[in-house]
Design goal:
Elements (H helix, E strand, L loop, with lengths): L1 H22 L4 H24 L5 H26 L5 H46 L14 H4 L3 E3 L2 E3 L3 H6 L10 H15 L7 E5 L6 H10 L1 H6 L4 E7 L4 H13 L12 H6 L7 E8 L2 H6 L7 E7 L9 E4 L5 H13 L10 H10 L4 H10 L5 H12 L8 H13 L4 H9 L9 E2 H12 L3 H13 L4 E4 L13 E4 L2 H11 L9 E3 L9 H5 L9 E6 L17 E6 L3 E3 L12 E6 L5 E4 L12 E5 L1 E2 L15 E5 L4 H4 L6 H4 L5 E5 L19 E5 L19 E5 L19 E3 L21 E3 L21 E4 L1 H6 L1 H6 L4 E4 L12
Parallel strand pairs: 3-6, 3-7, 4-5, 5-6, 11-12, 12-13, 13-15, 14-16, 15-17, 16-18, 17-19, 19-20, 20-21, 21-22, 22-23, 23-24, 24-25, 25-26
Antiparallel strand pairs: 1-2, 8-10, 9-10
Protein name: RPW8 domain-containing protein
Keywords: ATP-binding, Leucine-rich repeat, Nucleotide-binding, Plant defense, Repeat
InterPro entries: Apaf_helical, LRR_dom_sf, LRR_R13L4/SHOC2-like, NB-ARC, P-loop_NTPase, Powdery_mildew-R_dom, WH-like_DNA-bd_sf
Length: about 800
């Protein structure tokens, strides 16, 4: 609302200032300068005013402050215009007041406008990252048959195409991998005909087939087809629905994409008056709904809009709605052999050195399913002939638990993961603990594996890479990530739903109370009844994973988990009560709370934290962290805390809690996208055990505590994408153990501490996109351990003198990277 008032006032102010310029000689210079400032500001205010977007409260308050000053400027301009020419004192007084207002507006623009712009950019990133996150799991891409060049043609996601990004390349299976299958080409032409046919009967078209058969591959090939893109004028939207969709959110999103009409306000469904508006742009629209599991969900997504067509990708046919369906066929012998050879030998045919008969026998056991061919082929790569023979025999002995081809596939693939070493196999099975079609934060995964399987961090990451190389998961990373100082926040993991089904299938072979992992496979409104029937018995599970909606204290029942070491709570709710059985988990080491809702969750029943004496890792995502009471019980063993997309100000504002007493052994603190964070509590500086602090994308964080130099154990400090920070405290120069400093994307950082050269252990600095830096301290030539600086071209020139004094220093000019894939949903 303040943007409306600010826009009206600014427009009126310009008119009044023109009168002053024309009529009042003594006020003319001040009025002209003020007019130039308001003229520059007016288009921005008007754009915000007419955008129709409701701004967050803190941005509304900043614009309210601007509106108040513009009102004052308007009042001054009117007084100046009405002031008699002979009253020199009055005119000079008004001129001075206008000059002060001009300086205030200039400071406001300089201080707040970059943060507003960056916030808008990051909101765009979040939006399109969420859209990209719903793109089909990557392993299906191996069944594509179009040429590799065609796979590079972009699919429009919303109105923004993606092409050539790291995400796209990994989706396409990497360089050199060619799609196979005559059936894909035939199916593509048939589905294209259905989509471009006229009439209501062709409004909903389906692609069906068992998991891993290449359904999504075919759908993507169709979306990339030039004829389809031309027919729909690039208005093609791709959404993954999954077994547990947030249906109302998905409906709103699709409606906004299809019609171009934004649904404003706190609606959880599309208002009727909006439904009557219809689309802004006429013409055909294609929506691809991937991984649809329920007819009721599909029916909710059928909008009655002229030209609106849906391509439903599912394991089921839904004949009552989908009148035109293409059932995908499994690969024939030749295509299956080609795909298998690519996975096993990295070529399209059997090499001369391999046993052709044995290879063909293994391929035959894969039953023509692309995913099985790829996974089993990768597991046999570089193995000796006896290993192949053993694999063939084990595959042949796979017994089906029913007549379903898919269950046979799970049995065959279960025998395949039997070839993994013990800990690698257990780590693969742990992946089933995370919800389908969601990104898995790498930090959560690594911490879990380290605690569960007694692994070093390097060994846990090596297992991750091994599983990725065997096509059992897909590892994504940001374009800037990759060296030893990279944050795990820059990585994430996804897994094909059939591979997740495989992990669940193997986990569930044991009796319920004896399972090592107790998992809710999809989101439910209540705990499984099978759990309730066995609640009086102790559960042997080491991992407990719960996927639910809002849970009140009365929705839980008591359970006993004497061996549980990891608890993963995924939910979508505005309020959430922690389960009372946390008190029955004396060995709990890792606690993960991830809210998939649209706003931060208020937590209840926090008293259970007092029992978590062995907790070592805590991950909170999209949680409103409550104020910390003075009586907070120390978490003596907590080593890692990660706060992502959380609301923190209420917990930190006026807090008297000594964090060094509450978290005496904390070594790693991560704060990401907590946009209400304005400053850190000074008591953080008393935690002498802190080795790594990572603060990123906190737009309102304006300063670090002056006592930062007391963190004597700190080795890694990341303060990136925090545009409100203008300087670093001088005390950081006392961090004798600091090895890595990341201040990238600190757009308003104007200087570095003069005594920077005292950081004698510093090995690397990342300072890309620090556009306000004009000098570097002279003492930087004393950084003898410094080996690598990453910066922009202008800043690189400032390091020339230091390069002459530091023999091993390498100054790298960063490439510009405009990538939307790096954010977690």
């Amino acid at each position: 609302m303040e943007t409306f008032f600010a826009g009206e006032i600014a427009t009126e102010l310009v008119k009044e200032l023109l009168k002053v310029v024309r009529r009042t000689y003594l006020c003319r210079p001040a009025a002209e300068q003020l007019k130039r400032s308001v003229d520059a500001l007016l288009p921005i205010v008007q754009e915000i005013r007419h955008s129709g977007v409701e701004l967050p409260q803190h941005r509304q308050s900043q614009l309210s402050e601007l509106a108040d000053q513009l009102r004052l400027a308007l009042d001054l301009a009117r007084k100046a215009a009405a002031s008699p020419r002979w009253n020199v004192y009055r005119s000079m007084q008004l001129a001075h007041r206008m000059e002060r207002l001009d300086r205030w507006i200039s400071r406001w623009v300089e201080r707040h406008m970059p943060a507003h712009v960056l916030a808008d950019v990051h909101h765009l990133r979040v939006d399109y990252s969420a859209r990209l996150d719903r793109i089909e799991r990557t392993l299906d891409m191996t069944a594509a048959s179009a040429a590799l060049a065609a796979a590079r043609v972009p699919v429009a996601v919303g109105s923004v195409p993606f092409s050539g990004s790291p995400l796209t390349e990994m989706m396409d299976g990497g360089e050199g991998e060619k799609p196979v299958g005559v059936g894909i080409r035939v199916g593509k032409e048939r589905v294209k005909e259905m989509l471009m046919a006229g009439g209501d009967r062709a409004a909903v078209v389906g692609i069906s087939g068992i998991g891993g058969s290449g359904k999504t591959t075919l759908a993507k090939e169709i979306c990339r087809d030039p004829q389809i893109r031309s027919y729909f004028n690039d208005k093609i939207y791709f959404e993954t629905v999954s077994q547990s969709p947030n249906l109302e959110s998905l409906k709103l999103k699709l409606w906004e994409q299809i019609t171009g009409n934004m649904v404003l306000g706190a609606y959880n469904q599309i208002p009727q008056w909006q439904m009557e508006l219809g689309p802004r742009d006429k013409g055909p629209v294609l929506v691809v709904l991937d991984d649809v599991w329920a007819l009721a969900v599909l029916e909710e997504l059928l909008f009655r809009i002229p030209g609106y067509k849906i391509l439903v990708v599912s394991r089921f046919k839904f004949p009552s709605v989908v009148k035109n369906n293409y059932e995908i066929e499994l690969l024939g012998e030749e295509d299956a052999l080609s795909l298998f050879c690519h996975a096993a030998f990295e070529q399209q045919s059997i090499p001369f050195t391999a046993d052709k008969k044995l290879v063909k026998q293994v391929v035959e056991e894969c039953k023509g399913l692309p995913l099985a061919l790829k996974v089993i082929g990768a597991s046999l790569r570089d193995q000796p002939p006896k290993f192949w023979a053993r694999a063939k025999n084990r595959l042949a002995r796979g017994e089906a638990i029913c007549d379903s081809h898919e269950n046979k596939l799970l049995e065959h693939m279960a025998s395949t993961i039997g070839f993994l070493s013990g800990k690698v196999r257990e780590c693969f099975l742990d992946l089933g603990s995370f919800p389908e079609d969601k990104r898995i934060p790498l930090d959560v995964l690594i911490n879990m594996w380290m605690e569960l399987h007694d692994l070093d961090e390097e060994d846990a990451f090596a297992i991750l890479v091994e599983l990725s190389n065997k096509n059992l998961l897909t590892l994504f990373k940001d374009a800037q990530a990759g060296d030893i100082y990279s944050s795990y926040m820059e990585f994430f993991v996804t897994q094909h739903d059939v591979l997740r089904d495989l992990a669940l299938h193997v986990n569930n072979c044991e009796p319920l109370t004896s399972r090592r992992r107790l998992i809710m496979p999809r989101r439910e409104n209540e705990l499984p009844r099978e759990w309730e029937r066995n609640k009086d018995e102790p559960f042997e599970a080491q991992i407990v994973s719960i996927n639910s909606g809002e849970m009140k204290e009365s929705d839980w029942f008591q359970m006993h988990f004497p061996k549980a070491e990891v608890l993963i709570l995924n939910f979508s709710a505005d309020q959430y009560s922690l389960p009372p059985f946390l008190s029955t988990m004396p060995k709990l080491k890792v606690l993960v709370l991830i809210n998939h809702g649209t706003s931060c969750t208020l937590m209840q029943n926090l008293s259970v934290f007092t029992t978590l004496n062995n907790l070592r890792s805590l991950w909170l995502e999209k949680i409103a962290v409550p104020p910390l009471p003075k009586t907070t019980v120390p978490l003596q063993n907590l080593r890692k805390v990660s706060l992502v997309l959380c609301e923190l100000n209420n917990s930190l504002r006026g807090s008297k809690v000594d964090l060094s007493m509450t978290l005496p052994r904390l070594s790693h603190l991560t704060i990401d996208h907590c946009i209400d964070l304005t400053k850190l509590p000074s008591s953080i500086c008393n935690i002498g055990s802190l080795q790594c602090i990572s603060i990123s994308n906190c737009h309102d964080l304006s300063e670090l505590p002056g006592e930062f130099g007391k963190l004597s154990s700190l080795e890694i400090l990341r303060v990136y994408a925090c545009p409100s920070i203008k300087r670093l405290p001088q005390s950081i120069c006392r961090l004798k153990r600091l090895k890595y400093l990341d201040i990238s994307q600190s757009f308003n950082l104007r200087e570095l501490p003069e005594e920077l050269g005292h950081l004698t252990s510093l090995e690397k600095i990342d300072m890309r996109e620090c556009s306000q830096l004009r000098t570097i301290p002279r003492s930087s030539s004393s950084l003898k351990s410094l080996g690598h600086v990453i910066c922009d071209e202008e800043v690189a020139l400032l390091w020339k003198e230091a390069e002459r004094c530091i023999p091993d220093l390498r100054v790298q000019v960063a490439e510009e990277c405009f990538n939307l894939d790096w954010l977690v949903e």
